[in-house]
Design a protein that fits this description.
394 residues, alpha/beta, three-stranded antiparallel sheet, 39% helix, binds pyridoxal-5'-phosphate
């Protein structure tokens, strides 16, 4: 017998609502923050330096620069790569607004291209079709934590002399063909926003192997002021500073880095839990015809940030409402950028311009996936999804 949905006054799967995401902050993070607050240095200082060093060590990149958001990191990457007025940057529409907005704030134009039907990542074949003399950079996004096809993307960048700035907000743990994300292209940007796999409340990190880009981003992150540059260009000493670019203000402070230091130490442990939940979901949903499971190509490590399924025929927005009534939080990543009013008005996009992105955008659904979930929470999500999908079969 099919159980009656909570939406139709049936009994809900859970009494206590399971939020879509909850951070997992331990006593270690709390103690470190308190230690920082009791000391003399609360803004960017020794703990941020240590966090940068340990993050670079974890990723295996030469350099890491802590920033107060991935959004700011994208701006630094774009600016340091010379993206400016009149330029074009090719990116995916299946992403967060920050990617397009930061391109626009540089005075450049975001050029969307369609996505692959399995990974929902930017399609390299489409990238090639959209390169013009104005194209300056590529901004791929590792959707949900599945690495983009970086061999193809880097080959295109090389052929056309383009910079690559990767959005790795979902991809802190991701590996592409044996190379950790964050070590491959010019600049890679990570997010430590509250919902991300590693959080500092708000925050981010930029990695690069290029000393010039690293230096430039460091200067840009603090008003464009440079003691180092001053030292290089003058003999007058270090108390002075010079503004050598119209910079930004996006440094991460030591209070936030205190959290990050301990989150980083737990990242493997968190990942293990995410992976176990992921596998349980795959096993539970694998037999359901209505649901398309997340893809995993060979020779990659998935970052396992979002467990995003496609609903083939049932109305996605209705499923979110039904899940909510059952006591389960769900989310949408993403409503394709070309469907939002601003980009439609400004760039004249139509829904049919990016067929795969439109298709996925209408059907995609993210389920709760975080280490704080208990086995019971996981089973509740499975029960609720099955109940809702089965109710539609009759
Ligand atoms: C979260 C997210 C961002 C923005 O990160 P912030 O740290 O909040 O600026 C950018 N891109 C993607 C794909 C994201 O998911």
């Amino acid at each position: 017998m099919v159980k009656r949905l909570a939406l139709s006054r049936g009994r809900s799967v859970r009494k206590k609502f399971l939020p879509f995401c909850r951070p997992l902050i331990g006593q270690e993070e709390i103690d470190e923050v308190v230690d920082t607050l009791k000391g003399d240095w609360i803004t960017t200082g020794p703990k941020t330096k240590r966090f940068e060093k340990e993050f670079a060590g974890y990723i295996g990149s030469r350099f890491a620069l802590a920033v107060n958001s991935a959004t700011a990191g994208l701006t630094l990457g774009l600016a340091a790569c010379g993206v400016g007025s009149g330029d074009e940057v090719i990116t995916t529409p299946m992403t967060f607004a920050a990617c397009a907005n930061e391109i626009i704030h540089r005075g450049a134009r975001p050029v969307f291209v369609d996505i692959e039907g399995d990974t929902y990542n930017i399609d390299p074949v489409e990238i090639k079709k959209h390169i013009t003399p104005k194209t300056k950079a590529l901004l791929p996004v590792h959707f949900a934590g599945h690495p983009c096809d970086m061999d193809e993307i880097c080959a295109i960048a090389k052929e056309y002399n383009l910079k690559v700035i990767e959005d790795a907000a979902h991809a802190t743990e991701s590996v592409y063909h044996g190379q950790k994300i964050g070590t491959i292209s010019d600049v890679t940007v990570f997010s430590f926003y509250a919902t991300k796999n590693l959080t500092t409340g708000e925050g981010g990190m930029v990695t690069t192997n290029d000393p010039d880009l690293f230096e430039k981003m460091g200067i840009l992150s603090l008003h464009g002021m440079s003691n180092d540059a001053y030292k290089r260009y003058s003999e007058e000493g270090t108390a002075h500073y010079e503004v050598i670019y119209p910079g930004f203000k996006c440094n991460l402070n030591d209070i936030q880095s205190s959290i990050g230091l301990h989150q980083l130490q737990k990242i493997a442990q968190f990942y293990e839990r995410r992976e176990a939940i992921w596998k349980r979901y795959n096993q539970a949903f694998g037999q359901i015809e209505e649901i398309k499971l997340p893809t995993e190509r060979p020779n990659i490590v998935h970052g396992r940030h979002l467990y995003a399924i496609l609903l083939k025929s049932i109305d996605r927005d209705w499923v979110i409402e039904a899940l909510k009534a059952e006591g389960i939080g769900a989310s949408i990543h993403f409503i394709s950028l070309h469907l939002h009013p601003y980009y439609q008005k400004t760039f004249g996009f139509k829904k049919e311009d990016f067929k795969m992105a439109s298709y996925v955008s209408d059907r995609i659904l993210s389920l709760p996936l975080y280490p704080k979930m208990t086995d019971e929470d996981v089973e509740d999500v499975i029960r609720a999804v099955k109940k809702i999908v089965e109710s539609r079969k009759c």
